What does this fold into?
Amino acid sequence: MPETTDTATAGLAFESKTYTKKSTLPCKDVCTSVTIDIAEAGGAGVASDSINKSVFNVVRSIVHFGEQPANAKTYQEVMDSFVGAYDELKKKFPDDAMAWEAKVKSTVDYRSDNILNVKINHYTFTGGAHGYGGERSLIFNPETGKRLTRNDIFKDIKAFTAFAETKFRQKYKIPAGKSINSTGLMFVEDRYKLPDEIFFRENGILLFYNTLEVANNAEGSKDVLIPYAEAKPFLKIQP
It folds into this structure.
């Protein structure tokens, strides 16, 4: 059974649930394990169901081994699949299989009358030189539970992208007129693009590039915060 802790925000109630599983195979210092901490929505009918389903689908896409996520219906099944894949490998290669690890935590990162922003922090290791961690942003309408797209959020994505590029260049000291990759970044086709993850924060919109998205592993993540006063002309919804 998961451990639970109650918290609440206006309109939706959130219950913190923790799911864990470890491999039962013999291990030395470190054993294969999964920990999933979820801020689960409740008390709002369809909206809660929609939010929880979206969060679950993202977690399932993160905690898996192989080309495709497991066809799991619950967090327990997600963990069973991950640990089961390790156990199979360990039985085939008992001397070579290093312990795996998966950690996922979802939190309500920002909340207003118009926006609910859930952050998913994650780390997985399934062998190799190093694991991979990052952050995911899920933005919802808190009344309906509908996940908001960029077209729902921005009036003109092209115009906002151009503005964001100027802010990015300023922060990372990339001269105007020079290639966006001129200082060693790795934007695809040498063209600036918005990050995969955009967060609403108390003081502005955070454009967050996970490790390896636009820079090498050693440089880590990149980010740019655009204050709401500057972002407001581009927004369809009031933060």
